[in-house]
UniProtKB/TrEMBL annotation, chain A:
Belongs to the AccA family. PANTHER family: ACETYL-COENZYME A CARBOXYLASE CARBOXYL TRANSFERASE SUBUNIT ALPHA, ACETYL-COENZYME A CARBOXYLASE CARBOXYL TRANSFERASE SUBUNIT ALPHA, CHLOROPLASTIC. PROSITE patterns: COA_CT_CTER (PS50989). The lineage of its organism: Bacteria, Pseudomonadati, Pseudomonadota, Alphaproteobacteria, Rhodobacterales. This is Acetyl-coenzyme A carboxylase carboxyl transferase subunit alpha. The keyword Lyase does not apply. One of its GO terms (cellular component) is acetyl-CoA carboxylase complex. Residues 39-293 form the CoA carboxyltransferase C-terminal domain. HAMAP family: AcetylCoA_CT_alpha. It comes from Pseudothioclava arenosa. One of its GO terms (biological process) is malonyl-CoA biosynthetic process. Keywords: ATP-binding, Cytoplasm, Fatty acid biosynthesis, Fatty acid metabolism, Lipid biosynthesis, Lipid metabolism, Nucleotide-binding, Transferase.
TrEMBL record, chain B:
SUPFAM superfamilies: ClpP/crotonase. It comes from the Bacteria. A zinc finger (C4-type) spans 29-51. This is Acetyl-coenzyme A carboxylase carboxyl transferase subunit beta. It is an enzyme of class 2 (transferase). It holds the Pfam family Zn_ribbon_ACC. The lineage of its organism: Bacteria, Pseudomonadati, Pseudomonadota, Alphaproteobacteria, Rhodobacterales. GO terms for cellular component: acetate CoA-transferase complex. Binds 1 zinc ion per subunit. Gene3D superfamilies: 2-enoyl-CoA Hydratase, Chain A, domain 1. Component of the acetyl coenzyme A carboxylase (ACC) complex. Biotin carboxylase (BC) catalyzes the carboxylation of biotin on its carrier protein (BCCP) and then the CO(2) group is transferred by the transcarboxylase to acetyl-CoA to form malonyl-CoA. Pathway: Lipid metabolism; malonyl-CoA biosynthesis; malonyl-CoA from acetyl-CoA: step 1/1. Acetyl-CoA carboxylase is a heterohexamer composed of biotin carboxyl carrier protein (AccB), biotin carboxylase (AccC) and two subunits each of ACCase subunit alpha (AccA) and ACCase subunit beta (AccD).
Amino acid sequence: MTTYLEFEKPLAEIEGKAEELRVLARQNSEMDVEKEAAALDKKAAQLLNDLYKDLTPWRKCQVARHPNRPHCKDYIDALFTEFTPLAGDRNFADDHAVMGGLARFNDQPVVVIGHEKGHDTASRIERNFGMARPEGYRKAVRLMDMADRFGLPVVSLIDTPGAYPGKGAEERGQSEAIARSTQKCLQIGVPLVSIIIGEGGSGGAVAFATGDRVAMLEHSVYSVISPEGCASILWKDAEKMREAAEALRLTAQDLKKLEVIDRIIKEPVGGAQRDRKGTVAAVGEAIATMLKELNGKSRKDLVAARRKKFLAMGSKGLGA
Amino acid sequence: MNWISNYVRPKINSLFSRRDTPENLWTKCPECGSMLFHRELADNLNVCTNCDHHMAITPRKRFEALFDGGIFSEVKVPDPITDPLHFRDQKKYPDRMKSAQKSTGEKEAMLVAEGEIGRTPVVAAGQDFSFMGGSMGMYVGNAIVAAAERAVKLKRPLILFSAAGGARMQEGILSLMQMPRTTVAVEMLREANLPYIVVLTHPTTGGVTASYAMLGDVQIAEPNALICFAGPRVIEQTIREKLPEGFQRAEYLLDHGMLDRVTHRKKLREELITILRMMMKLPPAVAGDLPKPAEEDAAAKAK
């Protein structure tokens, strides 16, 4: 069952009609509807193509948050072998919004870390909708430290609405935990490749995304604040999220122009949620390429290049 | 036409308008409501003389009180691209900048200076909450990088006074990128083994706390300063319960192990001198009046 987004309503209608016709034909064998249904299919395919050809930033936000989009766990299950989750920050708790551990990527041992949002009500609650608490970032710091000591590359998968704004999270030092995680990203002497697979929500995303290579899926977003949050602050009206999404320049395409990210990973027509397997495979290829680019670099060179890369952030605007 | 309209009326008008001017000589303390005379308040570093409430103070005023003899020289901060995203909400970003520049008389939300405090050479950076909420954009990033580079070059400690609502939304992703960018600056100091002291002032929130403002070797806060990642309103809306008294205030953070010290603004200078001189393995500060600052500092100021 496809979950249609608000802007996909016309598509839902056409696909629904085609489906109805086929159901009718199955009940009544004399009817020949295939021609008509095929015409509708064609129309639907065309419409899907048109809809996704030039998604507005706000629509991209919706696609990036689509519940059927592959999440961190899907990528880990499909692309990594021998995944061995490692839990806890050795301090307070294990944060289920962040998963991570040892795994093999194309037989190469790596450390993989990512935000997991969950796929149904129960798992979403367990994963806190991908909103990490300080323990999540401290677990990541621990894992990155381990990767550094044993010379294992780190792969991070980013998909979070943001760090969790809760009482306990604040009391236990949410901001310090995020700052330390970003700092750890900048310190490790092993390759760090980051992929924004859905939502790159503010500081909670930066904490894992300060990598040697940063890639984004075509319809993912990465922003300093959610469009809703920005709209309510600057427009004093949360309903102005379309305008805010536009102004914030949060799409992969704009971020590439600004040289904030290194590469865009193409999504299937109609978004990652319509071809999960294809998307996962494309991300796998990108990880392989990026790891290869960094292969054989010395610790010193890696750290120096990463620093240089982030020091240069923002030296390029969108131009006139 | 006659002397009444030509002479008497302007005279009356000028008398009345003159009566309006003294208004800003008095400031009302937002905490206890006392009326405070401007000179008295300034002498007390914008701390209420009645209830000790710490009001905002601009970096320039703070530095005048911090550095020996009020002498410091500004560290040049490279200019970033203006309005890199062509951002526009209800107002254009360059227009917001212009009005902030006009109302504050400052160029941007951070001032970097070098000089001596208690004869201890330091670099200091101060964030200006009155300039667009102190928000961290490219310029603030540049300022912190410049401050760290200068500190490393001169082998001096860096003191950073933070005050910001968070990242500057008008610079979108580029403001977010100042989080890793300023963290690189902190790394430079760390590598050079130079003390990095953060003084958190009211309010320091959002992405600023989740980067350079929480990475100090010593973390000091001014009393009752709001310090948080997510603001209290956002949290109340998320968890739908009332937050405890004093939540996310300096003293609360101190209790929860997130700060080293909470220090009154009037005692801050002395404390910074004491801490820094120990960290830099210098002899204890000389008590009492200090000799006049060295010639070179005066020359630097004159430049």
